[in-house]
Design a protein that fits this description.
alpha/beta, Rossmann fold, five-stranded parallel β-sheet
Length: about 230
């Protein structure tokens, strides 16, 4: 039996830390996107835990029940929409269930599955993230008084982006199966959008569907070029 990971008497949220006391379970296979969410949660007072697959998410949920779930629909071992549907039907239900994707066209499917809201990659900034979360929290978990929106932009570790690129390069080097290509397309396009890399995002979209292998060499070349660039730390 899992228990909600909340304090018996949680500290009140404040304008500077509006998500104080929340535990967020992020189900996301991109290390770069996860690092961005971790930094946003840290700045907002929330604690983030991450699962990189459906299987890992289920292991987390056997141990504790988070305050908020954020689920990427495209995961390596299945659809995050199925997880959202199961979470929505469970009792007691997790308080807030959000979908997050670089494909805005998935918002309708996510809401039909039971998601309370949808976060688009890339997240525009800390203020947008906090407002998206606060819209779905009960009033007693929101800060009291005036709330000044922070203008801070979050910059994840660029090494996390390289890790994601290496993951897809290695995956595509071993298999060109249609399912693998479709997964690589959605993963890479989402990561590239989060990294503000529109050239790679557009190229990644061509990996899905008919004629996908025609764009494979182009994508691999772009990945190799980005991995060859020096990383500013």
């Amino acid at each position: 039996m899992t228990e909600p990971e909340t304090l018996v008497h949680p500290r009140a949220a404040s304008p500077s830390r509006p998500l104080l006391g929340l535990t967020v379970l992020l189900v996301e296979d991109s290390r770069f996107a996860s690092e961005m969410l971790r930094l946003m949660c840290l700045r907002s007072g929330a604690r983030l835990r991450r699962a990189d697959s459906l299987r890992a998410a289920r292991r987390h949920l056997q141990v504790y029940r988070p305050s908020v779930m954020i689920v990427d629909p495209g995961l390596p071992d299945g659809s995050g929409l199925d997880l959202i549907e199961a979470l929505n039907a469970a009792y007691p239900r997790i308080g807030v269930i959000l979908a997050m994707s670089g494909d805005a066209g998935l918002e309708g499917a996510a809401r039909r599955a039971g998601a309370d809201g949808f976060l688009s990659k890339p997240l525009a900034g800390l203020a947008d993230f906090q407002q998206a979360m606060l819209r779905h929290l009960p009033p007693d978990r929101c800060p009291v008084g005036l709330y000044a929106l922070p203008e801070a932009q979050i910059s994840p570790d660029p090494l996390a982006y390289r890790d994601d690129l290496e993951h897809i390069r290695n995956l595509l080097a071993t298999s060109h199966d249609a399912a693998v290509m479709a997964y690589a397309a959605q993963f890479l396009s989402g990561v590239a959008r989060t990294a503000l890399d529109p050239v790679l995002a557009r190229a990644a979209n061509a990996l899905a569907g008919q004629g996908a292998e025609a764009g494979l060499a182009h994508v691999m070349g772009l990945i190799e070029a980005r991995l060859a660039e020096p990383v500013a730390i």
